[in-house]
Amino acid sequence: MLRERGGHSRAWWPWRPCASTPPELAQKVLESIKQTEETCAGDPVGGECATSWDKVEELIVAASHVRGRKKDSDPLEEYCKDNPETNECRTYED
């Protein structure tokens, strides 16, 4: 489904969080979308509606950046940060 606001398409709608999105950020995005829909119910092309959608977009971009940073991390490195004493995380000197 495509949403329109002042000539701008909402191709990302409906937004769904993925597993790598922190739960608190995902909840914030979903709440912001709901609040924006309520704000835009009476005047879908007004300034208040546009501002509200801009805030939603900023949150979605933030969620995307968080997911991107998580993709760059190595799962073993993350595990070893939390469990340096395990066999998988031992380092040996020559």
Automatic annotation (TrEMBL):
UniProt keyword Disulfide bond present: yes
One Pfam family here: CP12
Listed GO CC annotations: chloroplast
Any one biological process term the GO annotation gives: negative regulation of reductive pentose-phosphate cycle
Region (Disordered): 69-94
Disulphide linkage map: 40-49, 80-89
Keywords: Disulfide bond
SMART domains noted in UniProt: CP12
Compositional bias ranges of the Basic and acidic residues kind: 71-94
Domain CP12: 25-94
Superkingdom, taxonomy of origin: Eukaryota
InterPro entries, sorted: CP12-like, CP12_dom
Cited PANTHER family: CALVIN CYCLE PROTEIN CP12-2, CHLOROPLASTIC, PUTATIVE, EXPRESSED-RELATED
Stated name of the protein: CP12 domain-containing protein
Organism phylogeny: Eukaryota, Viridiplantae, Streptophyta, Embryophyta, Tracheophyta
